[in-house]
Records
---
Amino acid sequence: MPIVAVLLLWSLLLAQPAARVQSQAFDVRGAARGVQPGEVVRLTIDTATRFETLAVEAFGVEFQPYRVSDTRWQVLIGIDLDVAPGRHVVSFVGTHPPETFLTTRTLIVEPKEFRTRRLTVEPQYVEPPPDVADRIVREAERLNAIWASRTPERLWVEPFVRPVPDPPNSAFGSRSIYNNVPRSPHGGTDFLSPTGRPVRSPNHGRVVLAEDLYFTGGTVVVDHGLGLVSLFAHLSAISVRPGTVVAPGDELGRVGATGRVTGPHLHWTVRLNGTRVDPLSLVEVSTMPDTAATPGLLP
Ligand SMILES: [Zn+2]
């Protein structure tokens, strides 16, 4: 939220006799691998009273907190690839009718250097033939609608697990140059998996897409709830259908080399309230304890 908006919100709250601006009503701790573009930060918010609702906003994005106990909430915050390094305000608005409580914290986002990778793929994936132009636009619109969806209930539980046992072989966020043509940065993590390797769901969720797409080939998208979504690409076989409810470890399909690829591997994308974050950051943060002094999180 821009500073001006925060100040405006504060003045609005102060103008109402019932509203309280009380930072001491909140204790915020965090867990993160780092505070950089592409990272997930989990915040734990302890409150003095039982809030009926809590809203959390950062980088102009509303993230969905969930209740852990009467006076404890948690929220996963995604630092998108394009977030500029520097100080960013995280705002918290809690309600305990008739009172409203507000506080802010500052997140200091450190810069991150992303590698550049050069790949050679079949030409139709760099300069697609005109007859697939409509298909590409339609598929992009469908995926954008999924990234924008906000299933109100949380289906996932900690921890998130890796979908395959193989090592990752390509970094999240790499600047990608296909056949000497720059394309959007790599918005996921690739695993060096052989064709046929079962791809297992990293957590609970509901399948919202299971079909062949132009760039991502055999594709399965799992909605974990509260704006957290996983996409698995380049599959050689798909074992689920839209609507299938999955649990951690359930088979979603098999690794393949379909779509825009140089060879067999598994591509895993995670979107958190639309932000592009590293799936491995989600996996690591989901097993981390909170620390009182989270680097980069200031009062
Ligand atoms: Zn990939």
---
Amino acid sequence: MRVLVTGVTGQLGHDCVIELQDRDMEVRGVSSKEFPLTDAGAMRRYMEAYRPTAVIHCAAYTAVDRAEDDKETCMAVNAEGTAALARLCRDFHAKMVYISTDYVFPGNGTEPYEVDAPKDPKNVYGQSKLAGEEAVQQILKRYFIVRISWVFGINGKNFVRTMLKLGQTHKALTVVDDQIGSPTYTRDLAVLLADMIQTEKYGVYHATNEGFCSWAEFAAEIFRQAGMDIKVTPVPSSAYPTRAVRPHNSRMSKKSLREAGFLLLPRWQDAIGRYLIELESLKEQEEMAAQG
Ligand SMILES: NC(=O)c1ccc[n+]([C@@H]2O[C@H](COP(=O)([O-])OP(=O)(O)OC[C@H]3O[C@@H](n4cnc5c(N)ncnc54)[C@H](OP(=O)(O)O)[C@@H]3O)[C@@H](O)[C@H]2O)c1
């Protein structure tokens, strides 16, 4: 199996490449430089030369707030770019994994969304990711659509890093508690994706760490496990207005993942613990490198 991973300079793409390398699989990770989603010709040339048998498509325009004022670019990358890549997967007989998001759902109610629940994205980014899903489903038969949420990994900015940084200068923080979802540690997701591409169990899945929490609960647990004495005060979303609307309900059901026989990801609290260790060892490596 020869795997192409898009978005290698991002959080998930980085960890997918590491996971596949650890399994001694043939893999190449690409960024927007060598594999621009807005240039179908360049992508075709790359596919012709590498001829992957599977593509894990992690790359995306992920600036959710900026997308509200930059719809054209967001759609060009997430919708048209994904459609162009799906056509290439079809032409080169490659399986495709498309990483999508909880933002395709309307975000109301309190029940976990099933994979086939009605879609109604409330922001431009969500609309573009849904258009990407629809293109993949129209163009391909051999696809996996994997919706994830609240991503954190070693190779990028994320909520955990933001909290740890704020915790260095604050004794108390206010954090939103009326948005409920599930964090996704890219290390854990990469294990699932590496398993998934080796099967023919095509379809739509939700994959996050197990359990639900609010952002405030997420923050409190980060500080607890990091041994930082920071008071977290829950506040409503209205306290932090954002350019793009965020869903209140990001709970997603794992029924299809379970029924297909895939292993569920560990609980989110467990993932935080392992991420903090990963951050610590990165810090040690950087300190050692700085000392020469
Ligand atoms: N982050 C979240 O909380 C979250 C939640 C739900 C779903 N997701 C989905 O999960 C996936 C991975 O997210 P992430 O957080 O790992 O992303 P990320 O860290 O923001 O990285 C984005 C990646 O996409 C690449 N990219 C951006 N524009 C591109 C273009 N025009 N052509 C080619 N590559 C381009 C970037 O490459 P360059 O560095 O070269 O620009 C980078 O490698 C995405 O599909 C995202 O939509 C993320």
---
Amino acid sequence: MPNTTWLITGASRGLGMETVRRLRQLLQTPTNTVFGTCRSPSTATELAALVSSPGTLYIVKLDVTDEVSIKAAANEVFKLLNGAGLDYVLNNAGINRGDDLAFNFTPSALSDMMATNALGPALVSRYLLPAIERSDRRVIMNMTSRLASIGSDYGTIDACYCMSKIALNMLTYKQARQHPDLIPIVLEPGWVKTDMGGPGAEIEPA
Ligand SMILES: NC(=O)c1ccc[n+]([C@@H]2O[C@H](COP(=O)([O-])OP(=O)(O)OC[C@H]3O[C@@H](n4cnc5c(N)ncnc54)[C@H](OP(=O)(O)O)[C@@H]3O)[C@@H](O)[C@H]2O)c1
């Protein structure tokens, strides 16, 4: 059976952590390999606890706002893949500082959210492309938000977050148009009880 390979950003907690936990079921199959990336592997204890599985989980340091870190992570992943392809990339890492409106926001809030939620995923996919191209699946999943849907009309809230996720949606479209051999898609998880979603959210991470 061919090996199946996955890379997930922001795997230290929230939806990224939960995705790795679910993939752990896949890790019961020894032919699955997961790269769980996070900013601080030394403090990602919950993620580290998932390492002992029949399949392989590698924890890779990656800060999506730091191009040097993304390049280093990509090189580490290339080495570990040893010529194999990367089948699924989940650009999950994201931030929402909240409390901003179209006429009331700080430049740092907008630039931080654009850096993390749009530029980060763009660079992650760009630097991982050689490995993605070696796969016969080639799936890039960009974690968007329903809040970024103009048609859904969510009103004034989270203007900077929504701008960054709309940029991510457009990135996904452009990736698909530039590389019709890839499958770039956006995922929308619903309103989930994570640190970002808060305890009042509608659904559990699982
Ligand atoms: N929760 C929801 O209701 C909801 C709804 C729609 C979309 N989403 C999207 O789903 C994704 C995950 O959200 P979540 O609810 O799981 O959020 P979360 O609980 O706040 O977790 C965010 C994750 O992103 C990581 N991260 C943040 N900045 C990073 C950076 N610069 N480099 C690398 N990792 C970074 C965090 O790592 P650290 O532990 O190092 O901080 C953490 O692992 C996000 O893209 C979010 O926009 C969430």
---
Amino acid sequence: MTQVFQKRPKVSSIVHSDQWVWPCSMLIDLLEIKNHMPSYNPNSSLEDCIKWLPTPDGIYSVASTMASLKTPHPLVPWFELVWYSHNIPRMSFIFWLAIRGRLSMLDRVHLYNPRVGTLCVLCSSSPETHAHLFFECAYSKVIWSHLKDMCGRPWNGHSWPRFIVWAAQRWKGKSPSIVVKKLCLAVVVYYI
Ligand SMILES: [Zn+2]
């Protein structure tokens, strides 16, 4: 038991004659380790070693850490609208946040700080939401109106989410004209 509580204990401290021998009185942390111990018995003839379980060879790598932390999710239909080989990362990132509705619009800020008003700072006529700022605001409509010929779609009467779905369905592939459309979309959202 005294061996287990020494400053630098080893696994061998709790191994005797190829059996796990746990101290009678254990700390809560030790109990948790005991509950997660493998069912096989130890081999006293082998040296203690450290193995990184996420990799088959037991050797640590940053890539395996990232892979083990990630939870797989299905691809969203607008994936290629945001992430593509010629994208501008900082603009794609802002565009991605806008699609997810995670930018700090005043309607969201107001939830955390009620002293902050919600009126759009560009037109002062409606609450500043993602849908308003990027699609409904008079300021944004002027910008979009200059791009409507390029996109082949009028802007009035269509919501921000519906436009994203529309663009994701049509702007597929790697042709220069498609890439330019996607770049313009990200640039407009970024600068608005
Ligand atoms: Zn506005």
